[in-house]
Fold each of these.
Amino acid sequence: MYALIWRLLPGGWPMKTAVAAGLVLVAAAILWYAVFPWVEPQIQFDHGVMNGTPATTPPTSGKPAP
Amino acid sequence: MRVLIRGLGELCITAGLVLLLFVTYELWGTGRYTHEQQDRLSKEMMRSWASGRPAGAGKITTERVSLGKGLAMIRIPRFGSSYHYVVIEGVSLADLRKGPGHYPGTQLPGEVGNFVVSGHRTTYSAPFNRVGELKPGDEIDIDTRDGKYVYKVTEKQVVDPTDVQVTAPVPFHPGARPSKRMITLTTCHPMYSAAERLIVFGQLSAEYPRVTGK
């Protein structure tokens, strides 16, 4: 896969290296700014909120056990 | 066949690199977002405090803060003098990305009942990363517009995520009439997992009015 991409890149090796580096950066940026922020809430391994806590409860009225 | 094996190998290496980048994002990248938000909310809150009490706000801590805004400043001396986070009103995913969040509906700092705060332990700047190190007697300081509330840690517990009774005005006794002024911190446990919750209880030991308008 990578060999094929390398062959398809234009120019000599300095040019190929530059374009390849650019492509890697673009891929990383897409992952970092678009894919990861979307994936992160789906897995959410770091979750500290008590489940089932109602959004609002009148103060001092207490809360029924679930 | 060789092409197939090489392709598979390259795919595995790529997946590994992407995973590595994702871990970096979770543990470091998310923290940058939290820091930005904390800076913004902290400035906003300090401006609001400096500008004096909003009209209509009665005596201490009856102030109502809208969801997603800064409510108070939490400091824990055991974690160092530079440790401070703006406590956000609300515990939605979006709120907790900005910092520790106060459960809406639970009491406000200094009130009789339970001031409940939840925070991330490993991602988003991990405000409650070291909460497990707290020992009975340790201080948790809460600064609000009107005063500083010093809570002392009384107890630490690991509970199931469904044990919402810990957020009751009298923890574990929902419906009971509160007489103590408590603070409860909740975060995930063990680290990097959501299997259980680590709970730290504290009780108000002192309160000081804010001297200046700052």
Amino acid sequence: MIYLPIAEMPVNVLLVLLVSGAVGFVSGLVGVGGGFIMTPALMFLGVPAPVAVATGASQIAATSFSGVLSQTRRKAVDWRMGMLLSMGGIVGSASGVWLFERLLRLGQLDLIISILYLVLLAAVGWLMLNEGLSVMRGRPTRGVSILRRPARTIAHTLPFRMRFPRSGLYISIIPPLALGYAIGALAAIMGIGGGFILIPAMIYLLRMPTNVVIGTSLFQVLIVASLIVIMQAQATQTVDLVLAALLMLGGVIGAQLGVRLGAGLKSEHLRALLGALLLAASVKFLLDIVIQPPEPYVLGGWL
Amino acid sequence: MRRLLAALALLLCVAPASAQPSAEIGNDLPAAVAEEQITVSSDYRGSYVTVFGVNPDRRGRGDIVVVVRGPNEGASVMRKRQVFGLWVNGEAVRFSEAPSFFAVLSNRPLRQIASAESIWRYQLDPAASAQLSSAVPEGGDPSAYRAALVRLRREQGLYQEYSGRALADQRGGLTMYQGGLFRAVVRLPANAPIAQYHADTYLFRDGRLISSQRVPISIARVGFERRIHDLATNWSLLYGVLTVLLALAAGWVAANLFRRS
């Protein structure tokens, strides 16, 4: 047991390491960021939602930085696009932190987080389950396919166009800024990195080549998550350094094991399994807000 | 800092009310706490507060009430209501002052010791100490919100009520010994706020307050916990930057381990 100085509660060190290790393991295995599993898992352990969201961001910064480093070696980062996405992300996360604080004061933060997670987990879970199952049945994936990308999107017709040599694109800067903004705001409120929304959007909306998508999205996630940690530390003082260190340790070890093990396994089964798990979690979030609560009263916010 | 100032302000308003410098009430009730300073370090898992005292009445007449109070703070309670099939939090009802921790111990049920009026006057139960400061939504009952506050905090272990001696399955209780000596034990859960507490001891006879005594108890962070908390509150920008640097270092180590394998 260790006492968390900011969350003001004792937690079981082994349990936290185990949970963060498991989340890191799954993310290494399946290739997802893991923020959207880590934050609800922390809340499940009894960590107050504000602390879970703000502290989770520091763990996301750690994993995305290690990702950016290895992607940079492969020259798989479009820095210009990354900067543009980050600029949107910086403004977005600032509004997200502001909204977070407002909702916290209004006492509606838990509800909004529940609804957002409900929608998010259901959507991602369904996609993963579907994709995993269709691959297992031997059908071609409906996932990331260059042939299916539309030739021109709204990104090509809007004004303020700019050249992106690394991606070989000449598109408007409005969609990347807007996309970065939306992901930044969601990241601040939900404690997620947002890569799993960002990546499909970059492929389908911005028409970026798949080889630079992961590195570039990781760069945006790194900038936004780091900024969220600093802003939450100032605005709500809900970043717990001790918890953050435990999460990073468990997450790093878990992710390593996951990547090593994942190389020799069929990922479709895992994806289908994880998808089913996320769907189950979303049902839990749904039941929590639909079923009449046994205790009709709740204590107000933390601030 | 803001919280500290608020706590100081509250202490200033509360102290005269509960000390009651009235002529009839004496302060010849010897009482002391075994733990004047409770330290919170990384192995903190809550604590116990033990209050000792002696009933000055030689024949041991009268009843003893011991209250351990945390500082008063603002609080709010919401009632859930259904909107489009979803249970959402209704309008918040605010309490300008509610004890952040409150444990009351007595040698027999409080209602038999003191009148309802005394209980309110000397704030001997948590509901009596909670000051409602905003209007209750239409159709709402103020006392239901007050009761909900007490119930929810009781579930968190922040409000405790014991009467009679400590039972085996109870964590706290008031035990009377021969010669008027008494000992009150209160379990302070780990979620109780870290602040300045007070233990108040009251002697009642025939429903009337005879004597009372107040003893301070301080709970404070020490060592690493203290440094982290000070940094997070007073140097929050530096603290945030440090956390990010830690994250970057962890990411760098991870990336290099990955490359080797």
